[in-house]
Amino acid sequence: MFSPEGPRLRELAVQMLSSVERGYDLLAPKFDHTPFRTPDSVLEATAAALRRLGPFDSGLDLCCGTGAGMEVLAGVCRRSVTGVDFSAGMLDVARERTRPGGPAAAWVRADARALPFGPAFDLVVSFGAFGHFLPHELPGLFTQVHRVLRPGGRFAFPVVAPPRPGSLVYGMFLVFDAAMRVRNAVWRPPFVMYYRSLRFGALRRELDRAGFRVALHPLPEFGRRPDGSPRVRLVVAERPAEREAARGPSAVRVRPRRAG
């Protein structure tokens, strides 16, 4: 699972016994050599889908980590890109890997649940971050994203189809989540990282409640499952334009039925 340049078992143990923030500070120098980093194939497919929807002026990478998602933004945003994360160590690595040229880049240390921005972005992306939020935190998180988007702006993130119950991957996720729950029950501070705490139905429901209009875009690069459903989708949640949002659902006209 880990390359020779990745963390050793002892380093991972120390990380997992720390807080989320401190754990990622420790892991940052070797994070890109772990399976926790979003694969390049997913980043590239997301960038291709966003190019079809763009271009955009300014973008935000939510929970940017070491900045892999910033490269996606740099390819679809014309003016500026911003990465936000609460791990200073991850941000340090991200700054170092910033490539010259392209849109202006900025890095901000902040909690995604209390973003220090106004409505300044046309696009927000996030990769592999939702496992660090408990289900009851989703409403506040999505409200924050909605607030920092300009009207008509989009919040986009890839979602992989859940593994089939009984499969090896399903069992691995089940064991990992169980181990994390035991760890958090007996050790403080907690380290919130779960693979199976977020259900797609709940995610979409909370996006709707936050005021987004949600669309799903299959990423054809990853093919389809035996039942015909896409293996990977890009969720694109749009903040409606102000005029459209002001109308609300009650403004939808219902054509009267003709008699007879």
UniProtKB/TrEMBL annotation:
Region listing for Disordered, in residue ranges: 240-260
Keywords for this protein: Methyltransferase, Transferase, Ubiquinone
Source organism, top-level taxon: Bacteria
Presence of keyword Transcription regulation: no
A Gene Ontology biological process term: methylation
Molecular function in Gene Ontology: methyltransferase activity
One Pfam family from the record: Methyltransf_25
Domain Methyltransferase: 60-153
Entry-linked CDD domains: AdoMet_MTases
InterPro entries linked to this entry: Methyltransf_25 (IPR041698), Methyltransf_Superfamily (IPR050508), SAM-dependent_MTases_sf (IPR029063)
Protein name: Ubiquinone/menaquinone biosynthesis C-methylase UbiE
Protein's organism: Streptomyces prasinopilosus
Lineage: Bacteria, Bacillati, Actinomycetota, Actinomycetes, Kitasatosporales
